[in-house]
Amino acid sequence: MKDEPCQLPDDSRAPVPPADLPAAAAAPERRIAHLDMDAFFASVELLHYPELRGRPVVVGGRAVDRPRRQADGSLHFARLRDYVGRGVITTSTYEARALGVFSGMGLMKAAQLAPDAILLPANFDAYRDYSRRFKAAVAAIAPCIEDRGIDEIYIDLSHIEEATLPLARRLKAAVLAATGLTCSIGITPNKLLSKICSDLDKPDGITVLGMEEVPARIWPLAAKKINGIGPKANERLGQLGIHSIGDLAAAPPEMLVQHFGRSTGAWLHRAAHGIDERPLSTSREPKSISRESTFSRDLHARHDRAELSEIFTGMCLRVADDLARQGYVARTIGIKLRYADFQSVTRDLTLAVPTADGAAIRKAAGECLKRVPLQQRLRLLGVRASSLLPAAAAAALPSPLVQAELPL
C-alpha cells in the first residue's frame, strides 16, 4: 500500500526546511485548504426536516427517538428532556451550541442545559451519501485531496492558477450545489494553520492567512486551538502560564521539552510558530483506520467503567463503519491508551478471519484491553484496524477450516 503525497511541478517543489525556525518560515509557500462541513450531521438532518431550521437540534438519540407521523400529518419530534440513558451527542446545530450543547457531551447532561432541544437519531447512511457528494464536487475542481473523515478534507490548491478568494468561493458554491449544505474553508501555507483557520469564521466562512499574519491573527488564539492540544495538555500548559498560542510561541523550547518530552515539546514550539511541513496524503489504500478520544477529564477503568465502556464500544462501531464505508476489512485490531502521566501503551490482536463487523472489532479490542495495566487514570483511548484488505478480495480467501485441511 503506497502513500501518494501531492506534488507541485518540479520547478516549484519546496526543499525540506532545516530545523531552525527562520529558515523553515522562509520556505516557498504552498496553498493548502482545509474544508470543513458546517455542523454536518445536523445539517443533513435539517435537509430532511426543514421545519427544524433555526431551532436547537441534537443528533445522538436511538431509533425510538425517530420522528413519528401524527394523525394530522405533522411530525412529532422527541425532546431532549425526555431522554433517559447514557448516550452521547454526535453533533448539534449552532442554535443548540449557543445553549452550551456540544458533540461528545452526555445526552442527560445536555438535557439540563437545553431540555426543549429536538433529539434525532443518527442516520449514517445519509451522512455517507452527502459526504461522497461534497468530496466529488471538490475533486472536480481540485483533485489533490486528503480525506480526513466524513465531513472534512484537505485540498492542495498550489497548482491551480486562480486567485485564492475566487477559488474558495467556487469550491463552496460547488459543495452547496451538490449537497444543499454550507462549508467553511481555511486557506494557508500548511495543514496545521488551515485546520485552525477553517474554524475561525463558521458557519459558511472563508479565512485566508499568510505566514506573515501568524503573530497578529494566530498568536492571540487559545493554545487549545492547535489541533493536537487536547484538554489535558491544555491544562498542563495553563499550569505553566501558557494560555494563548502566542504564549506558547514565546516559551523557551527547552522548557517545553522538559515538561512534554523531546518530540512533543519540539512539536509544540514549531506548531506555535505555524510551522508544518506535512504533505497531503492522497493514498487510496489506507494502512490503517482508527478512532481515538481524548477525555475532558481523566477516567478510571473501575470508577468510570460505564462511561469508558460506552465510549470504547462507540469507537469500535465507528471504526467498523469507516471500514465498511471505504470497502475494507481488517485482520488486526489494536488499542491505544494514554495515561494521566502522558505515557502511552498499545496492544494488537491478529484475527483468524478479517472483519469489518462492529461486534467482532469490539470483542478483539476488548481482548487487547485485558493485556494492559489499568491501575492509572486514562486521558486517551483509541481503537485501530490495520492489515487491511479490500472486502471483495477478502471474501475470496479460503476459510481457516479449509486452510487447516491443506497438506503442509
Going across the biggest sheet, name each strand in turn: 8-9-1-10-11
CATH class bucket of the domain at 288-393: Alpha Beta
Main sheet makeup: 5 strands, mixed
CATH architecture of the domain at 288-393: 2-Layer Sandwich
For the termini, the CA-CA separation is 29 Å
How many H/I helices? 16
How would you sum up this structure, described in words?
Belongs to the DNA polymerase type-Y family. Its cofactor is Mg(2+). The protein has 408 residues and is of the alpha+beta class. Among the domains are: 40-122, MutS, DNA mismatch repair protein, domain I (3-Layer(aba) Sandwich), CATH 3.40.1170.60; 212-276, 5' to 3' exonuclease, C-terminal subdomain (DNA polymerase, domain 1, Orthogonal Bundle), CATH 1.10.150.20; 288-393, Dna Ligase, domain 1 (2-Layer Sandwich). The protein has 16 helices and 15 strands. It has helices spanning 21-25, 40-48, 94-97, 107-113, 124-139, 164-179, 191-197, 214-218, 231-239, 245-250, 253-260, 262-272, 305-326, 358-369, 391-395, 400-405; strands at residues 32-37, 57-61, 68-69, 75-76, 78-79, 91-92, 118-121, 145-149, 152-156, 183-188, 206-208, 288-299, 328-339, 344-355, 378-390. Strand 13 (328-339) and strand 14 form a beta hairpin. Helix 5 packs antiparallel against helix 6 (164-179), helix 11 packs across helix 12 (262-272) and helix 13 packs across helix 14. The longest helix has 22 residues, at 305-326. The radius of gyration is 23 Å and the shape is globular.
